[in-house]
Amino acid sequence: MIVDAWMQHGTVRFMGHEMLDSLWRWIGQDPPKEEVPVAATVAALDAGGVDVGLISAWYGPEGDLVSNDEVASFVRDGGGRLAGVASVDLRKPMQAVRELRRCVNELGFKGLRIVPWLWEAPPTDRRYYPLYAECVELGVPFCTQVGHTGPLRPSEVGRPIPYIDQVALDFPELVIVGGHIGYPWTEEMVAVCRKHPNVYIDTSAYTVRRYPPELVRYMAQDRHHKVMFGTNYPMIAPERALTGLDELGLSDAARDAFLAGNALRVFDLQRKGDGR
Fold first, then answer.
1. pLDDT digits (tens, 9 = 90+) for 215-247
2. Which of 3, 92, 124, 243 is the most buried (most CB within 10 A)?
């Protein structure tokens, strides 16, 4: 089984936003001018052999780029292949907490994702803290981006140390998933992941053959590694992201943890064939 821990089924207003110009330029494509059918995202999962993709809403200071209700509709149209991840407006902390609660309890979402560079506010900003407490109460992970910022926004808020380290100290019960590996601070991210039992890494925005060596060493040498597969689709398709997987030299247990086991546990997903 394979789970993609970081995807988007993007809207035109998200994928056409000027902040993503650098990414489209990098992959040599233009953003879509019309809304993409959910079937296209499911087809990309099929092409890569991925069973479930976690798709997220996107909220920033100018409002929603992909709303939670849009994500819920994408999940409904996904035939059981997609799971929702919420996002919220940091400017209104109590409204944000209530929206997260609605997304989990009523829409069945599996986590919360906030992208710090979008807000130019690191994860230690006080506006996040009520949401961390609510994630703990709801039993869902907090997902965020670590590492440099590909879009045209500042990167400093993506440092694993001090930001993720401090949040994990303040909220030891909070499960944190750091997406995009953490490069160029990958060793910091691996160190934080090893230090804190509830901190994880996902590999979104990187193909297997671009994983930094320090991450590969952690995955191959630590039988209890906490790395999970992600793509950042539609920027990288699952099939392309997984090319070269056998070259990592992972044991069967490490491979299963990477492709599915860690994500199944963290996001409370059902393994194929599980009768729950």
1. 999 999 987 899 999 999 998 999 999 999 999
2. 3
